[in-house]
Amino acid sequence: MLRPVGMSSCSSFTSALPLPIPDAMLEFFLGYSMGERSATRSASLARSAAVADGTRHTNRIEDLDERIDGLVMIMRAMWALMEEQGMTPEQLMAKIEEIDLQDGIADGQVRPEPAECPSCQSKVAPGLRACQLCGTEVRPDTGHPLSHL
């Protein structure tokens, strides 16, 4: 069936068209138009999600930068104290090599061993204070100034 211009429930859409429009074509145009709006909205939501994800990563990077700055300050303070006590750069390098080899690999990284939970005997990943399975505390907060690192 042909619908005369201006007789549609969407008269603003069809009034711009000069000829009568078949119902199927009108449905196609309306569906396309709505789908296009939906696609535009989906794209907008995707952009918003990407921005939020980027913000989260930016915040994480800023947090890591702050931690690194804190570690640099601690290292400078420690070295100043060690120099005041007569420590030489050679002694410092020897101690760094010794600590590096504690995990059996000379790779410039410290890899702490997983702890064993006293309650369920599962391995607890380094960096966790409590067992991920039963919640038992395996690394208590000692109040050591570097324990949060």
Secondary-structure map:
Elements: E1 2-3, H1 11-14, E2 21-22, H2 23-84, H3 89-100, E3 115-116, E4 123-124
Antiparallel strand pairs: 1-2, 3-4
Provide a descriptive summary of the structure in words.
By secondary structure, the chain is mainly α. The chain starts with a strand and ends in a 25-residue tail after the last strand. It is extended and about 85 Å long. Mean pLDDT is 75; it is low at 1-14. It has helices spanning 11-14, 23-84, 89-100, and strands at 2-3, 21-22, 115-116, 123-124. The chain has 3 helices and 4 strands; from the N terminus they run βαβααββ. β3 (115-116) and β4 form a beta hairpin. Strands 1-2 form a two-stranded antiparallel sheet.
List the keywords:
5% strand, single chain, 149 residues, mainly alpha, extended, two-stranded antiparallel sheet, 4 strands
Uncertain segments are: 1-14
Please report which band the strand proportion falls in: under 5%, 5-15%, 15-25%, 25-35%, 35-45% or over 45%: 5-15%
Q: What kind of sheet is the major sheet? A: 2 strands, antiparallel
Overall, the morphology is extended
Would you count the extended β strands for me?
4
**For the largest beta sheet, what order do the strands appear in spatially?**
1-2
Q: In whole angstroms, how far apart are the ends?
A: 75 Å
Helix % is 40-55%
Alpha carbon gyration radius: 33 Å
Note the run of SSEs as H and E.
Answer: EHEHHEE
Q: How confident is the prediction overall: mean pLDDT?
A: 75
- Helix vs. strand class: mainly alpha
Q: If helices are DSSP runs of H or I spanning 4 or more residues, what is the number of helices?
A: 3
